Amino acid sequence: MLLSVPKESNLAPARIWHWQWTLFALGFLSGLAGVVAQSTVQGDQQPANPATAPVVITLEEALKRAQANEPNYATALADARVAGLDKSIARAALLPGVIYHNEALYTQPRGQGQGIGNDTFKFIANNAVREYTSQAVVGETIGLGQIAGLRRANAAAAVASAELEIARRGLVATVVGLYYGLSAADHKLTIAQQAADEAAAFVKLTGQREQAREAAHADTIKAQLAQQSRDRELSDAKLNADKARLELGVLLFPDPRTPYTLNISAEPAALGTREEINQLAAGHNAELKSALATLNLASADVLTARGAYLPSLAMNYSYGIDAPQFAVNGPDGVKNIGYSAMVTVDLPVWDWLATEHKVKQSEIKRNAARVALTATQRRLIAQLDESYAEAQAVRAQLASLDASVATAAESLRLTKLRYTGGEATVLEVVDAQMAFTNAQNAREDGRVRYETAMAQLQTLTGTM
Predict the structure, then answer these.
(1) pLDDT tens digits for 148-200?
(2) Which of 48, 189, 307, 422 is the 20 to 30 Å CA partner of 245?
(3) Does 456 map to a domain?
(4) Which of these, 314, 368, 321, lies nearest to 340 by C-alpha position?
């Protein structure tokens, strides 16, 4: 809106000044509105914050995260730590214990109103009407039971440590299966998407040939049926990939829906020689260590039970005050501070065969532990043979699976060219498409199978 100021000849100076301020105010408000509008438009045009980039997870990182989140492994870790403390407690039982003992004892006197020194007391087992004890006491008990207890605690700690390693390796096998299973599911999703695109392109090709009267309508129908089947397979592949991602995410993140990607080497790990595998399994197999530690634990129980046949020795040394006055010196000037020592030997005589039966119980359990150890050794030999043969066979098949994919891709290309030239049928093209998809899926399954066999070998040999 334009405003004109009247000529000065027709207006008083005050009115001229009023018009000038009015125009200035209107101009200022107009400029302020323009600035606000421009700021609003710029604010609306600012890009939103970019989405958080997915976390890249290597297999080592996945194993580390799973150990922090898996409850069974946490329980095994807690048991191993508790067993380690039990070993320290059993060792402490072999060492002298020191306490500072304080006691005030009052006994009813026989006389009434007499002096403390002249009173006699009711209970003959007590030493005075008033008795005060303040002593440092050192005690030690030595027997086969304490020695066997330490041996048993060491064996139990070894069992817990081996069980922890078993739990860790079982978790490793689970994570490896889920990790490479998710990788295969993602790759199969890509394969299914490519197959669906290929089927859609083939439907378009058959439609063009039908319009050009070079193919029958049955070809178009067959191509459409194949496309519908590929679309369903794509939907299933997407569902399987999402499920695999959530299953692994449960072990990795507080929220399993956290986005992440995998970092997997294109080349599979190399397979060692059989001699290397045997040497590693002999020295680092957790199941074998657990069975051997269990046998040692059972042997310690036998020693503990037999310890009840032997005498036990207890020694006690006390230094301090045990007097009618709580003072260093008595009324007669004699020092109350002194010491005493005591040695006790307990000889077992008769317990109605309870010790003999406990020994038999422990020997029965020890014999069972020996059988379990030999069974573990046999099972280890069989598992090594099976896992190594599995890994060796699948390793040899990986190159064949790659060749099959390349052959199937070339077969599909040539079959489509022949169909375009009218030399092949629609069924041949559909079969070639299916063969190519199946070859790609088989290659992914082969990689998962090989990595699983390698994880099993590494679990048996303790190298993961």
Answers:
(1) 888 888 888 988 988 898 888 889 888 988 999 999 999 999 999 999 999 99
(2) 48
(3) yes
(4) 321
Between CA 354 and CA 415 the distance in angstroms is: 86
**CA-CA distance, 327 to 151, in Å (whole number)?**
46
Name 342's bridge partners: 316
Prediction pTM value:
0.68
Whether residue 6 has pLDDT greater than 50: no
CATH assignment of the domain containing 404:
1.20.1600.10
Amino acid identity for residue 195 in this structure: A
Structural domain includes residue 48: no
Sign of the alpha-carbon torsion through 308, 312, 316, 322 = positive
The reply to whether 147 falls in a domain is: no
